[in-house]
Amino acid sequence: MKPTLVFLHGLLGTQADWQKLSENLPHFHCVALDLPWHGSAKNYPVQDFDETCAYVAKQIQSAVENQPYFLIGYSLGGRIALYYALYSQQEKYNLQGLIIEGGNLGLINETEKEVRWKNDVFWAQRFSHEKAESVLNDWYQQAVFAHLTEGQRKALIEKRQTNCGDNIAQMLLATSLAKQPDLRPYVKNSPYPIYYFCGERDHKFKQMALDNQLNLSVIPNAGHNAHQENPMVFAAQLNALLRDKFIAF
Question: Where is the AB hydrolase-1 domain (predicted)?
């Protein structure tokens, strides 16, 4: 039986975001989930991290049962993966380890959390009330997406419009970084191996990984969304990591 990888996408994404990467991982059984308020789960309501993780646990149990699996999360999906594995009271089943791509470990002080909450409320109001194209055009101008070319930015705006609206506002508030505990001490004392993947142009999260002495793999020719920007190299590094450290093919 092939080893199983379970994927969690980022805000505005769907399970389809992992397709190119999965195509480059033939030795694995790849299971990509839609998060609440997204894709096929667009009408599944959650109000916080705990409800989100209860949903994730249920989906993992249904898809994986008791087979060993690695949980891979991008951005918001990475934050949810960390919370689920290290902080939530949910059953982890046969979890073997985490691969986090561009996921934030949390904010340290209350001032940072207040600023972030105001920012997330601002974006949530825009997602709820404005046309998707207008909001997304500004969303993808944020610093973390600064590396994108104009063509890449337009393609993302086009791709995300159908999944964009009040549902994204709801998820943004439910899983705001302001609501997330600082997971640094939990990462440091994790019972599971944790590996951090980051695009070479994603300076913010690459520095965060270095500052926290995470086990870092840097993906060349990629920014924040490395698994979509360079899926072949991402897959090769993931394949080598899991093959060398855990799995005998």
Answer: 3-231
pLDDT in tens, 41-64: 999 999 999 999 999 999 999 999
- The burial class, CB within 10 Å (0-12 / 13-18 / 19+), for 221 is exposed
Helices in the chain by DSSP H: which ranges? 19-23, 49-64, 76-86, 110-129, 132-139, 150-160, 166-174, 184-188, 203-211, 226-229, 231-245
For 106-138, the pLDDT digits (tens) are 999 999 999 999 999 999 999 999 999 999 999
Residue 88's nearest CA partner among 214, 183, 185 is 183
Domains annotated for the chain, with CATH where assigned, are 4-107+181-245 (3.40.50.1820), 111-169 (no CATH)
Query: So what's the pLDDT on residue 57?
Result: 98
Distance (Å, whole) CA 18 – CA 228? 8
- Mapping DSSP to helix (H, G, I), strand (E, B) and coil, where does residue 174 land? helix
Q: How far apart are CA 147 and CA 202, in angstroms?
A: 8
Q: Is the dihedral of CA 136, 150, 72, 114 positive or negative?
A: negative
Whole-prediction pTM value?
Answer: 0.96
Q: How many CA atoms lie less than 13 Å away from 170 in the CB half-sphere?
A: 18
- The SS3 assignment for 181 reads coil
pLDDT in tens, 1-40: 788 999 999 999 999 999 999 999 999 999 999 999 999 9
Please give the torsion angle defined by the CA atoms of residues 228, 234, 236 and 241, in that order, rounded to the nearest 10 degrees: -140
CA-CA distance, 138 to 160, in Å (whole number)?
Answer: 13
Name the DSSP letter for residue 3: P
Q: Cα angle at 219 between 214 and 225, to 5 degrees?
A: 95
